[in-house]
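Supplementary Methods, section 5.1.

A reviewer requested that the exact input to the structure prediction be made available. We therefore reproduce it here, unchanged from the version used in the analyses.
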Amino acid sequence: MSRRLLTINKLSVTFGGLHALKDLDFYVDEGEIVSVIGPNGAGKTTFFNMISGMVTPTSGDIIFKGESLLGLDPNQVTAAGIARTFQNVRLFANMTILENVMVAQHCRTRQGLWGALFQTRPFKQEEQEIREHGEKVLSFFGTRLIGYRLDQPAAVLSYANRRRLEIARAMATKPTIILLDEPVAGMNPKESAALTRLIGELRSEWGFTIVMIEHDMSVVRDVSDRVVVLDHGETIAHGTYEEVSTNPDVIEAYLGRPAKESA
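The structure derived from this sequence is encoded token-by-token as follows.
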């Protein structure tokens, strides 16, 4: 039986009197892929920002593996085991592809400033382990990010491969949960289909639990165990893709209230 990894209780956040999220309840079990969908302005990114420690909730609690995340900085949330990507790709453009995934692992390092300054044997050994893990993560994406590309700056990558590198950087932190914020945004159908397969493999091959924000309903349909629908900061539906896609409240949220027929 899967254990509950993340539980969110009555989570609210208010910006200047505006409710970005209101009394939100949410959960994720180990090994699930859960998609969070909703129209623009529904509160999806705010939801991710609160889980990752970038926004402080007005009320409510976020429990991860039995411990509250409230009050933790983003780096502490990452160290606890929750990594994320962003809707707008945030890479270190002038660092190499390998360096981007190596730096992500420093939340797991044991050697401190002393080892770095004096290049101690334990420090060098740890750096080698970080490099090897970085190459292993990058190899998950086939030939797109390895080989001669390892020492290329991230700035030379295509948009789709920048998306892949950002996911690789999240993977490199050795998380339990990965939060994917619109992972196929801006991709063509072929690229979207390829990345959709990879999202499934993040669970089947690497064992990650995934929470995903996505507007592409074909991606949501193909990978999600459950779907949660937000509108104006509140949950209006949850269930399988088939259940939420036919829910009248969800249809109304996306398409608007149907006009009344003329008499």
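The chain has a mean pLDDT of 90. These observations are discussed further in the main text.
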